[in-house]
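Write out the 3D structure for:
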Amino acid sequence: MRAAVALAAAVLCAAPAQAQEWPKARPIRIVVPNPPAGPSDISLRPVAAAMQAALGQAVVVDNRPGANGNIGAAEVARSAPDGYTWLWTMDAVLTVNPHVYRSLGYKADALEPLVVAARFSQTLVCGPATGLKTVRDMIAASKTRELTYASGGAGSPGHLVMESLLATAGAKMVHVPYKGPAPAMQDLLGGQVDCGFLAGPTVLPQVQGGKLLALATSGKTRSALAPELPTIAESGFPEFDGTFSILLAAPRGVPAAVQQRFIEAMNEAIRAPAQKERARAQDIEMVGSTVAEAQARTRALSAQWGALVRKIQLTSD
């Protein structure tokens, strides 16, 4: 009995000591499960630099792309929960992939969402030859002729948000998935596909050049890069919200004191005016949140996208 009490006391004492020592042992690593120079990567690097100054330890951004985010997520999920490995990811890795992939390479509950770091939307565009200028035009046309739409890949934000819109409107279009936004953009410009839901920075230069027509954005609020564009909600579907997030997550079990200190430093860096302004140029809104807010949003989006994935029967190995 005395041995058990002594062991419990040692554990209780060890947790504050570990938190007090962190992050002196070694550099902190934030894994991004996407290639460099993408929205997640671009939005994180200034934040990581600010956190490095606040925490007094190097904060390293480690890009681990592949399998629609699953490779990087699996690496973090299998890491020791010691506060030295974190995940900065688009929320679809936690809210969509568990419903799509038969094997994630890790248990979905091994990762704990901690902060809603940022929000972003997708921009709906169509080729000029389609004659489609509004969301209502597109929905009406889809019921009288076959229309195609491009996305950056099956299960990508553009794919999901278009299928959500079509389900809401009771319409159908043919999905043409590409291996990333660049080839999708090329075929949109070439007229091989009619429309597409892609990131604002990808399509808006082509809209401004008159090569594509922008119909709407998917988020609940208008895009900072194109405030003249209506949202889908303003285009006749008032309950529609196709907002996506960038989340901070960690392997489950990071000591509470370590977690709290890291989250505080991250929220402060995220909410800095200079960081917000930089992110706006990429059509990203930096926000920050509590752990409870991050987990509630993740649960809600998982239910929302899980229902859609089952409806469109989207699966992958």
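The two ends are 50 Å apart (CA to CA).
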